[in-house]
Amino acid sequence: MSRNIVTVLLYDYKLKGLPQILLLHASLIHMSTTRNRLGLPIIFADMLLSCFLKLCTTPLFARASEIGGPSFADATRSSFNEPLNRLRPRFRYWVPDASVDLDRVAADIRDISSVGAGGVELMGYYLYGNPYSAFYIPTDWTKYGWGTAPWSKIYWQSLAFHANVPQGQLQDTVLRAANASDLIVDLTLGPNQGAGVPAAAGSDGLLWDLVAFNITVAPETAFNDILPGWGTGLLVSASTGLVIRSSPEAGVLSSQSLQDLTTLVDLNGRLALDHAPGSEHGNLTIFAYYRVHSNYHHTPSPSTVRGVPQSPVTTFIENGSWVVDHFSPRGAQVTIDFWETHLLNGSVTRDLLKSAGNYMFEDSLEFQQAVYFIWTPELLDRFLSRRGYSMAKYLPILYGTKATANFGGAPIGVSPYVTDEADGGLSHVRDYQQTVRFPICTLK
Q: Where are the domains positioned within the chain?
């Protein structure tokens, strides 16, 4: 069984060079049909002029002949009639997975060149982050996943030795065809939106999250016990606060009562308080926050998908792609290491990128729904350095809000909180947002 992608391309062929675009949106159609590797065109294209007439200077992998050439701002009537490729509209060339027919791929690239486009964006679609449990996967993603051999390697028959020699496959097929047609190629950093790559589970550079626990202590009573949630992950913060009012929307914490008690927690997770301050207005709440990996697959492991039988997963390359930590150099390094080791591991691919490569990018940040708190290990130190105070005791009013991560707010069973400050603690939320807007740390 196979899936094909149907695309309808509409142009005014009367124009020379820059085609007139009759706004198209291609449709992704899943079809259970007999496999036909020479069937319908496999591109999922979206010719959006506003996105691909890039107002840019020198691209990352620009052709040598175009470096230093005119920018969009320098366009004249002459250059408009015969614009450089990086100033022409380009196709978003989205493939369902690496099982696509390579002859059809090369023909698509030639067709794109024939109508005057400047290049393509190559991206592995892989359901684009949609709920994969609801769709039937008609190919073996253990074999045809992003970054696997069919994506990154081709085996061609040597005339001299009649042996299979690794030489690049889907990615290189696009680069070769683009280079032959004098086109440029943009690449996403990973599958789907490009937020992650295959990696070993538990790698430090993968996406982090915070898990929250709390317990209420009656006023003026001692507490000498293990923190709630101890063992869930690495303790980030233990704090206390007096809840003076509650409503269905949020609990109100006395800002004067907030204390960071993390240093008082022993190695076994025990916190000892002689007495819990409180009053007739409320009880003391002990909060505990732990750092864990979100384990969010940007493309799923083949072991979890519906569809044709999937081959056993034997390496992390076959196990889908994990979203990386976007606020740490370790996250960047996970992506760099995968590209260096598995996608740029031959002079052919590197040479093709130098000739036809343009941009490598992440299409959009679409993983907030995977975490309750955008977190990275250096965040507490960076917040203290930039804002001048510790955010640890303010985690109760930051956690689980739409301002810090998850589109849906706090997880079930975790109440949102505000403070009794005039702004409800909004200044601390804004300080958090200002902190994560800037690089958490720099590569060394």
A: 11-200+297-368, 208-293+371-437
The pair of three-digit structure tokens given for residue 262, joined into one six-digit string: 């993390």
- Note the pLDDT tens digit of each residue in 263-315: 999 999 999 988 666 555 667 899 999 999 999 888 889 998 888 999 999 99
Q: Answer yes or no: are the C-beta atoms of 328 and 374 closer than 8 Å.
A: no
pLDDT tens-digit readout, 10-65: 222 222 332 222 222 222 222 222 222 222 222 222 222 222 222 222 333 444 34
158 neighbors 299 (Cβ within 8 angstroms): no
| Burial profile 325-336: b = 16 or more Cβ within 10 angstroms, e = fewer | bbbbbbbbbbbb
Query: Distance from first CA to last CA of the chain, Å, rounded?
Result: 49
Task: Give the integer Cα–Cα distance in Å for 32 and 139.
Answer: 11
Distance CA 85, CA 281 (A): 69
Distance CA 23, CA 104 (A): 24
